[in-house]
């Protein structure tokens, strides 16, 4: 299987970084901790110190509570240390991977409560922006949310849905659900709008933009609307979808999507900046 052809991220399929030569059949590798250079460890610490200042008041409480307990200050985290904490909290485990993995491999890991984490760290010139997931995006953006029991169950259900969607030829629709929730989701709280999406939480610019800028549309969560919506992978999002709780997200995505996919076949995709009369906007 050719990883470069199989892994599609968003709408662009591009050559992938990473060494796909020495991995197991499920695309996992061992984290070779001593191979990280001091420059890479220093880059992690600088990424961490910048982002840790930005998340209070902008990330949801579930995320912040987990982040406080994670050993991220000293340097690139060790998988086995975080796995002991995560396993105790929600029975999830992290597995090291060479980078983006094929959709079905990714879904199979999620369906079995394993989250694939890219082991390598971005280059210095990518300090503020990177398209592919690296170890900072995965650990800082995704891992804290896996400590929330309801969100953790949502991720497992998503993986199971992914296996089904692939068989039904419905992946583009399901991938948009991942994008607009797991990567770029917002949640409405009594204290105001907060981020829970990993793409936002690991981004120095978008973490503020997503919850404060007057530019983007913020639309109340609507499964069908999300599945119709194209997205951009190379700029701040033009539309965010807002949930009221992780339970709402879990419940709304619980039913079998087969009838929904059939309906969507007859509907046109919507541009990333579409304004629909029926959108319920969040002010
Ligand atoms: N691989 N490592 C990794 N991380 C992802 O987020 C990822 C992936 N492969 C496929 C994939 N995501 C998509 O299937 C999802 O965006 C739906
Ligand atoms: Fe991600």
Structure description:
With 283 residues, this protein is an alpha/beta fold. It has one domain: Aromatic amino acid hydroxylase (Phenylalanine Hydroxylase). The protein has helices at 3-6, 38-54, 61-69, 79-90, 103-111, 135-142, 149-168, 171-183, 198-201, 206-212, 223-228, 246-252, 258-265; strands spanning 93-97, 114-118, 186-189, 192-195, 217-220, 239-243. Helix 5 packs antiparallel against helix 7 (149-168). The longest helix is centred in the middle third of the chain and has 20 residues, at 149-168. The termini are far apart. 38% of the residues are buried. Residues 1-13 have low confidence and may be disordered. It binds 7,8-dihydrobiopterin (HBI) and fe (iii) ion. Residues 7, 97, 100-101, 103, 106, 116, 118, 133, 175, 178 line the site of 7,8-dihydrobiopterin.
């Amino acid at each position: 299987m050719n990883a470069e052809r199989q892994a599609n991220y968003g709408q662009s399929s591009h050559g992938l970084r990473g060494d796909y030569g020495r991995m197991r059949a499920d695309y996992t590798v061992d984290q070779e901790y001593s191979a990280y250079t001091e420059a890479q460890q220093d880059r992690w610490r600088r990424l961490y110190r910048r982002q840790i200042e930005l998340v209070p008041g902008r990330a949801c409480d579930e995320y912040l509570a987990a982040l406080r307990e994670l050993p991220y200050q000293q340097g690139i985290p060790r998988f086995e240390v975080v796995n002991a904490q995560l396993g105790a909290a929600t029975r999830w485990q992290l597995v090291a991977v060479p980078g983006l993995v094929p959709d079905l491999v990714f879904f199979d890991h999620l369906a079995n409560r394993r989250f694939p984490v890219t082991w390598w760290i971005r280059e210095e010139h990518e300090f503020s922006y990177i398209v592919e997931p690296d170890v900072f995006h995965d650990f800082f953006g995704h891992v804290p949310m896996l400590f929330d029991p309801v969100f953790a169950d949502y991720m497992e259900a998503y993986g199971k849905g992914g296996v089904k969607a692939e068989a039904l030829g419905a992946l583009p629709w399901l991938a948009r659900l991942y994008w607009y929730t797991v990567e770029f989701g917002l949640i409405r709280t009594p204290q105001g709008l907060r981020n829970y999406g990993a793409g936002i939480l690991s981004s120095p610019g978008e973490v503020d933009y997503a919850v404060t800028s007057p530019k983007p549309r913020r639309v109340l969560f609507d499964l069908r609307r999300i599945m119709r919506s194209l997205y951009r992978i190379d700029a701040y999002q033009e539309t965010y979808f807002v949930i009221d709780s992780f339970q709402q997200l879990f419940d709304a995505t619980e039913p079998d999507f087969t009838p929904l996919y059939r309906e969507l076949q007859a509907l046109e995709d919507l541009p990333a900046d579409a304004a629909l009369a029926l959108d319920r906007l969040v002010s």
